[in-house]
């Protein structure tokens, strides 16, 4: 997934995420990182700056600043909420369902449009993956490819482990096109022994 991001943007994961932005050089990215007051390392950091501070830091022409604003407005800003159904009362070996709601802030636009990736040889549409994993055992439990315009609801199912106890899992939301907009969340499932489910009174 991370390789897909790097190939699309034509850069390494170790490079500054700011190099995805138009007119950015390694020197400028370094200057942003060393910005007094607050280190600017992500697209979101740059967006949150005051206009005059940003202008002072970047020292670019108006048309270059417009290109940067256009990129920032198109950069995925997505709200993710999730719910684990009956997460505190799952029987060993049964299915666990995670319901995920995604909502994009389109900044007044009506559609997403192609990915901003000048180093990629052709036009590319943005794609996403939702993944549930167990970082302790390094297991992938559920994965789903998601195409997201404005809103989406996705259901991920995986099987609870055979042994009872509290289990911690990680939900990943990964982009295939941009670096720096992935999200991850931890959640716990309380697995009960098979046959000892608390009866609804």
From TrEMBL:
SUPFAM superfamilies: E set domains, Sec63 N-terminal domain-like. InterPro entries: C2_domain_sf, Ig_E-set, Sec63-dom. It is found in: Endoplasmic reticulum; Membrane. It is a multi-pass membrane protein. Residues 1-189 form the SEC63 domain. It comes from the Eukaryota. Its main location: endoplasmic reticulum. GO terms for biological process: spliceosome conformational change to release U4 (or U4atac) and U1 (or U11). One of its GO terms (cellular component) is spliceosomal complex. Keywords: ATP-binding, Chaperone, Endoplasmic reticulum, Helicase, Hydrolase, Membrane, Nucleotide-binding, Transmembrane, Transmembrane helix. Pfam families: Sec63. GO terms for molecular function: RNA binding; RNA helicase activity. PANTHER family: SEC63 DOMAIN-CONTAINING, U5 SMALL NUCLEAR RIBONUCLEOPROTEIN 200 KDA HELICASE. This is DExH-box ATP-dependent RNA helicase DExH12. It comes from Sesamum alatum. The lineage of its organism: Eukaryota, Viridiplantae, Streptophyta, Embryophyta, Tracheophyta.
